[in-house]
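Mods, move this if it's the wrong board.
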Amino acid sequence: MAPMPSARAYVRTAVLDGKLYAAGSQDEADGATSNLVERYDLAKKSWEEVAPMVTPHEFHAVAVLDGKLYAVGGYNDDGGVLSSVERYDPAVGAWEEVAPMAEERDGLTVTVLDGKLYAVGGYNDDSGILSSVERYDPAVGAWEAVAPMAAARRNNAVTVLDGKLYAVGGYNNGILSSVERYDPAVDAWEAVAPMAEAREAHAVAALDRRQAVRCGRRRRRHSPKLSRAVRPAREQCRRQWPWHTLRAHLVQLRGAARARRSCL
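Not the wrong board. Structure tokens:
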């Protein structure tokens, strides 16, 4: 496929209306946090730039809810770890800020369950690695805390399967193999079978009512306590992992295109 016009690290991706969005990042030219957003059209096999985010984000998370793209938390060169959230509406081609999370988070993951957006784990400078989970209800425009995970996690992966949310692997004073499952009906997490290998910075997806874990890092080559002053070195170690998420979204996008063709 065509490369992105701009070289970026830590870009986050999501599929909206049959197009692949690449939002935020660290700019490869100068290392600055970016608010750039580009969109890939599978039919045209080309990228185009769309409206930039209000705030530059890296180490953030993105998800699609009710036909809009959300960019959640992350890190900003000016503001540090972020609690801010913004939403892109493709109908008007613009971003708007929505209610922020109660906690600042980078290295978090987000997913949608029952029409609500969940922000899971992450890290901030005050609390360190987080077990807390917040849920955004677009109907009321507010976040609320839900039950925390048993284990604090950053750089984990999340997916939804059979109406429940799974938090898989991640990092907490070591790379994790543990998996937890959240049931919104009882607002509680429970441990399920761990993975055979510990993983962080990986991706997961539900396929045929089973979970598939894609790639990730199995051992950590740097200290989690490095200061922001040495972020470039730490980030170089983490440079490969967003590609696994991008590849997962490309598979999703191509599958949707094949399904559409089969209906013609």
